[in-house]
Amino acid sequence: MAAAPDLLFTLRNNFYLGAYQAAINSSDVANLSPDDVIERDCLVYRSYIALGSYQLVINEIDSSAATPLQAVKLLALYLSSPANKESSISSLREWLEDPAVGNNPILRLIAGIIFMHEQDYNEALKHTHAGGTMELHALNVQIFLKMHRSDYGEKQLRIMQQIDEDHTLTQLANAWLNLAQGGSKIQEAYLIFQDFSEKYQMTILILNGKAVCCMHMGHFDEAESLLLEALNKDAKDAETLANLVVCSLHLGKPASRFVSQLKLSHPDHMLVRSASAAEESFDRAVQANA
């Protein structure tokens, strides 16, 4: 008997590759099961979150919604304002301890995302390491790379390859690992992003992926043109701005405008924080020698 068609494939794939508006636009799918409806709504609301429309998500998901949707709302609350972070994490911990809902895969995924934002990688892994979905395995790869443990990331990738070698998330995880390992692996990562760019619409995620590969290979002019194309799609995207700072410095071009944009749009970004720390150290050194 032939397998049932995956009605949410296009929506899911658009979301994974960062084509968030396309994901929202492709969400009107007929004949969905109740579980598929919940998955579709989660992906749509997560797409709105990725586009920065936190309040829309907070307003539309009410207290009677299913657990996965409540988890997505919690992510929107967490990201919407620094003032909401503490209460969001507190609610998240309560739900995770509730035996009735604590093992829900979307709740565990959102927990992993939030604790990764908090840079509490051990806490993130506590909820994601068991896997169970391709997204959870892919998030594990990201967390292990943040912890500089590409060896554990490789184990997760092998699990993903056994489940579905051609899955978009398997390919993405493979590219992330190749980038982390460097050397001859960079070309392999580039080919994965190139393949995506030929098969699907060009997104900020794909453009940044190709650009980072180009920078690793020393092709900074090509990287710059890819990043400027990404900037045309979203002038406030954190990764694009951060990569443009690095690329500009390698090209000997002024990077101050990109640094300023990054500071304004993403004051908590790692690059902003490290630049601020360096400026403070420099100022202290100047004062000490004055």
Topology readout:
Blueprint: H1 9-16, H2 20-25, H3 34-50, H4 54-60, H5 67-80, H6 85-97, H7 105-117, H8 121-128, H9 134-146, H10 150-164, H11 168-181, H12 185-199, H13 204-216, H14 220-233, H15 238-251, H16 256-265, H17 270-289
Helix pairs in contact: 3-5, 4-5, 5-6, 5-7, 6-7, 7-8, 7-9, 8-9, 9-10, 9-11, 10-11, 11-12, 12-13, 13-14, 13-15, 14-15, 15-16
End-to-end distance, in Å? Answer: 81 Å
Main sheet makeup: none
The string of secondary-structure elements, in order, is HHHHHHHHHHHHHHHHH
Overall shape: it is globular
Rg computed from alpha carbons, rounded to a whole number of angstroms: 20 Å
The overall pLDDT average reads 91
Structural class by secondary-structure content: mainly alpha
Number of strands: 0
- Approximately how much helix is present in the residues? over 70%
Number of helical segments with 4 or more residues: 17
What percent strand? under 5%
Poorly predicted regions are none
Keywords:
single chain; 290 residues; mainly alpha; 17 helices; 74% helix
Describe the protein's architecture and organization:
This protein has 17 helices and no strands. The protein is mainly α. The protein has helices at residues 9-16, 20-25, 34-50, 54-60, 67-80, 85-97, 105-117, 121-128, 134-146, 150-164, 168-181, 185-199, 204-216, 220-233, 238-251, 256-265, 270-289. It is globular.
Characterize this entry briefly.
The protein is mainly alpha-helical and 290 residues long.
